[in-house]
Amino acid sequence: MSRILIAEDEYRLACFIEKGLRKKGFCTAIAPDGPQALQMALSGDFDLLLLDLGLPEKDGWAVLEELRSQGEQIPVIIVSAQAEIENKQGVNDYLKKPFRFNNLLERIHISLQKSE
Q1: Under 8 Å CB-to-CB from 39, ≥6 apart: which residues?
Q2: With 0-12 CB in 10 A as exposed, 13-18 as middle and 19+ as buried, what is 110?
Q3: Residue-wise pLDDT tens digits, 51-108
Q4: Which residues have CB under 8 Å from 98's CB, separation 6+?
Q5: Which domains does the chain have, with CATH numbers?
Q6: For the whole model, what pTM was predicted?
Q7: How far apart, in Å, are the Cα atoms of 68 and each of 47, 80, 89?
Q8: 16 Cβ partners below 8 Å, 6+ apart?
Q9: What's the rounded Cα separation, in Å, for the pair 116 and 83?
Q10: 81, 55 in Cβ contact below 8 A?
Q11: Residue from 63, 60, 75 nearest 111 by CA
């Protein structure tokens, strides 16, 4: 059973994602801000990170940069309202908000398969 960290500050969206993933058999946890997302991702307890770029205190890019600088290779899917992301370094995939849950699920499966 894969473990997914949801780094998302919009409470309703985080709960929507978490509920859907749990129904599909995933273990999940939510990090509502950048520092918590970084700490949890570095714990090694997760197989994939869904990362919002607009996190409070430390944005998603800062979280990703610090993860990669510390050698953490967890697959990362950016989930953001930004139309385009310029710097895709260190990112496994990108999904623009709003999105269909089935599209998110498909990208999660692809990223997890690649990391095996």
Answers
A1: 31
A2: middle
A3: 999 999 999 999 999 999 999 999 999 998 876 666 667 788 999 998 999 999 999 9
A4: none
A5: 3-115 (3.40.50.2300)
A6: 0.94
A7: 15, 19, 10
A8: 101
A9: 30
A10: no
A11: 75
